[in-house]
Each structure stands twice: as structure tokens, then as C-alpha cells.
């Protein structure tokens, strides 16, 4: 609840410590120049906190991007390793089949000579 007592009522709200917090409240009739001055004062009073939050958010974003890039690089490396292993297994299987074929040829030649 904003707990307004008179109208018009204006509350400036910002996210602070993970919850919405009223950082300024203006009640009653206010001249435009006074309104601008008071809003400016409220903004300046909270500027340090806002800058800190923006920096933290940017750091979190950069960390997330870095983590994502590292994950992508890891997956690419993993896929390359898996492909390399697959090719190696295929080559070994082909070599085994060729050796088996050669062995069968030798056996067939020996049978013919007998």
C-alpha cells in the first residue's frame, strides 16, 4: 500500500533489494517547477544505487554471455572429438574387414592347393 493521504498523489517507485520500493512521494497540489525540482532531487538521491544496479546487471549479462560462449566452444570441441572417434572406429573396422578378407583369400588359396 502506498498510504497516500491527499490527492493528487505521486509515488516514485524503483526496484531495490529485489522488491519494489517507494523512494519518493509527493502529495497535494504542487507547482510544475517544484514538481520537477523534487523529482530531480529524488532521482539524484537514488542515482548511486541505480548506477550500481546497472553495473551489476551488466556484469551478470557479460558473465552469462561468457558462460554461453564457453558452453558453445565446449560442445563444438566435444562434437569434433566424437567425430574423430567415429572416423577412427570406421577406419579400424575397415582395416579389420580388409585383414579378414585377406585372411580368407589366403585360406581359400591354401584349400585350392590341396
UniProtKB/TrEMBL annotation:
Gene3D superfamilies: Glutaredoxin. Residues 61-114 are annotated as: Disordered. InterPro entries: UBX_domain-protein. It comes from Cirrhinus mrigala (Mrigala). Residues 80-114 have a biased composition (Basic and acidic residues). This is Uncharacterized protein. The lineage of its organism: Eukaryota, Metazoa, Chordata, Craniata, Vertebrata. It comes from the Eukaryota.
